Amino acid sequence: MSEQTSFVEIRHAQKSFGALEVLKDISLKVSRGQIVGIIGSSGSGKSTLLRAINDLDPLTGGEIWLDGVQVNKKLPHRQYEKHINEMRQQVGMVFQHFNLFPHMTARENVTMAPKLLKGMSQGDADRLAEEQLDKVGMLERIDYYPSQLSGGQKQRVAIARALAMKPKLMLFDEATSALDPELVEEVNLVMKKLAEEHMTMIIVTHEMDFAASVCDRVLFMDKGVVVEEGPPEVLFKNPTQPRTREFLRKHLEGAK
Q1: Which residues of the chain have pLDDT under 70?
Q2: Where are the annotated coiled coils located (predicted)?
Q3: DSSP-assigned beta bridge partners for residue 225
Q4: pLDDT in tens, 100-148
Q5: Residue 54 in 3-state DSSP?
Q6: Are residues 154 and 100 in contact, defined by beta-carbon separation less than 8 angstroms?
Q7: Most C-beta atoms within 10 A of its C-beta, which of 5, 15, 117, 242?
Q8: E-state strands within 91-196
Q9: What is the dihedral of CA 158, 176, 244, 50, to 10 degrees?
């Protein structure tokens, strides 16, 4: 796939939970190295869309493509399991609530997947853990357990764990929303560093300042549709849609 063509492509994504339609015919293209932010109220479908990208929330209809390969192929069960595991190794995902294994140190949390899924030796995995934990400013706490870490430190370990698989794409689902305000910036700084390295990222966030400073494009979602999208300097300063203006007005007023 050439650099100019879409690296991530979502085609007519639709997702229903029973009678509730959460995603309504969403199409989206993301270029390699691009950083896309997704904003919107709770229940707008942001996280569902993000989770659909690596088929954690399988779509009811539509297609997800990554680097020219369809992620959500219709395959017999065994073939699907092999295919989706291979695809998920290319996508790093950081959740709101860390999802670290509490009985494992930071080192062990980071080395587990490379050893298990890529057959990496303990020595190579240890060197990889040191490299990735150093990248997120956590090398000094490499042998700490999650219970010994702050929320911000846990999230940085979670980012290092995702990066250890050398993903082509990083997904962040409200990565700072569970953190105390004073811990948010340390995680945002790590994400900004990844942005400077041109890592392809899709970021669901409630932090408008962060989205404005890091993202190439921002999408505003409401009730399962993309209402408006554009460069942050346009979307935040001069939105064209009344729903976008209302959301931003309420959000900015609430942040004061």
Answers
A1: 1-5, 253-256
A2: none
A3: 222
A4: 999 999 999 999 999 998 899 999 999 999 999 999 999 999 999 999 9
A5: coil
A6: yes
A7: 15
A8: 91-94, 169-173
A9: 20
